[in-house]
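Appendix B, record 7
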Amino acid sequence: MDEKKVKKLKEELNDSFSDEYIRNAGLLIHRLAERFYEENNLNGKVYFNDDIFQHCFIDILVDIARLKYFHDISRVNYIKFISYTASWCLKRKPFQIIKGCDEEYIYVNEKFALTLLLQAGGCYDENANYYAEDQNDLIKGIGQIYYHLKYRNTNPQTLELLLTGLENGKKIHPGNECQKKTV
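Structure tokens (predicted):
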């Protein structure tokens, strides 16, 4: 991007966001990506392209700025932020496969989006003890979300609807924190 375009874009984004918000939002997403990278042992198989991420992050901010303007709101909630983040990560694909890598990494960006959505939904803890039938249902549900991310429309609105549905499901069963049971 040339210097003139960058300056114009920065001015537009500064109308909607403080420098602190932009810095903190970028750090949050980048840290989530770093944690995903480490937890999935991607070193030597996949790399995180910071240039692609920067474009992805700009797209996220521009969309959120438009959303704020359209709805005349000062802030967006976390669900919307994560929905836009997951959607743009799926479009821009900041995780890139290293040549000669196994095909199991083809959907690494979809897996990253899945972890973002599950974290934002806050209802799956792989270290928790679940009843076997609940564990199987959770795994099946997660598999369906992953399938959606790979093969279906993944615009921010569908992802926001998913997260809102998860949130409402927790409210319907307030005693069952996402069916979590201790054994």
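Remarks on this record: The helical segments are 3-16, 19-39, 50-71, 78-92, 108-121, 132-151, 156-172. The longest strand covers residues 46-48.
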